[in-house]
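Running this now, will post back.
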Amino acid sequence: MEIIDLPADKRLNYAYWDIPFKSTEKKQTTYLPAYVIGEHTRINGRNLCLDKLEEIKRSLQSNNSKFANKYENTLHFIKANKRKISAG
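Update: finished.
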């Protein structure tokens, strides 16, 4: 993003985050810019994308799916980067 003069740390709904990925040898992470999904369309203070992702995660957990953890990582990122509107 910096190459096109839009650094993530200067964009409202982007944040740098350690993105996990699989490696044949070990788990690794890479610090990359990521979009904070749903923050631009909050309704009554709620991130509807976050609500839906939590619903999907619960469904996967009830089915003992190995993919539930991937949703947990995404939910943690969104919650950690929640935008607050300040008056004044």
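The chain has a mean pLDDT of 81. More later if anyone needs it.
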